[in-house]
Amino acid sequence: MRCRAKICGITSVADALMVSAAGVDAIGLVFYPKSKRHVDIAQATEICRAVPPFVTTVGLFLDAQPDFVRTVLASVPLDVLQFHGSESPEYCRQFPRPYMKAVGMKGLAESGGFTAYADRYPDAQGFLVDSHAPGAAGGTGETFDWTQVPQDYPKPIILAGGLTPENVAEAIRLSRVYAVDVSSGVESAPGVKAPALVQAFMAGMGAA
Ligand SMILES: O=C(O)c1ccccc1NCC(=O)[C@H](O)[C@H](O)COP(=O)(O)O
């Protein structure tokens, strides 16, 4: 099965169209106010309405108030939610959308490991493994040991954290994941995606 690609931290219609034309399967919109890639409801609505069919729109939240998530969902046509903080299983399942749970892999082995963490979220659509410590914010731009990515978990695994055009093929070869997720590795500035880096990233995936 081919490895899918999500590009996170899209902040403009132009970038959404550019990465869609490059062949990505999903775009991520960051609704975390402290992020340099944060979008507001008006921007996000415009972006989601502009993306072509069959490109999945993912809303990233980090320990947001439930009412804020509901307010976003009332206006922005998101397909999937991504919870990147310390959200509980009960929190994640309360919204009328499928969700992915981000898992901070740093130090996770000492606190029970991936399977124990993921099993708490039986209704998650998949798990995004990122390089941050549990409880810390993600989007660090750092990699982690890809041999630690679970190989036999019965849900899709999305690999994130410090991926670049140069390392994505090796990351896919070592981890055999369902999808990869990249943000800073294809940027010219925070929140601004560089067409040449996006194309090189997609080509790098093809070399895996
Ligand atoms: O992008 C952010 O600013 C951000 C802030 C807080 C939590 C998560 C954030 N981003 C997550 C992502 O963009 C991706 O899911 C992933 O972590 C990849 O990021 P990168 O390492 O920059 O490729």
From TrEMBL:
The protein's annotated pathway: Amino-acid biosynthesis; L-tryptophan biosynthesis; L-tryptophan from chorismate: step 3/5
CDD domains (UniProt xref): PRAI (cd00405)
EC number annotated for this UniProt entry: 5.3.1.24
Ranges in coiled-coil conformation: none
Top-level division of the source organism's lineage: Bacteria
Gene3D superfamilies recorded: Aldolase class I (3.20.20.70)
Reactions the enzyme catalyzes: N-(5-phospho-beta-D-ribosyl)anthranilate = 1-(2-carboxyphenylamino)-1-deoxy-D-ribulose 5-phosphate
Keyword annotations of the record: Amino-acid biosynthesis, Aromatic amino acid biosynthesis, Isomerase, Tryptophan biosynthesis
Gene Ontology biological process terms from the UniProt entry: L-tryptophan biosynthetic process
GO molecular function, a single term: phosphoribosylanthranilate isomerase activity
All residue ranges annotated as the N-(5'phosphoribosyl) anthranilate isomerase (PRAI) domain in the record: 5-202
SUPFAM superfamilies per UniProt: Ribulose-phoshate binding barrel
Pfam families: PRAI
Family per record: Belongs to the TrpF family.
NCBIfam families, sorted: PRK01222.1-4
Protein name: N-(5'-phosphoribosyl)anthranilate isomerase
Species in which this protein is naturally found: Thiothrix nivea (strain ATCC 35100 / DSM 5205 / JP2)
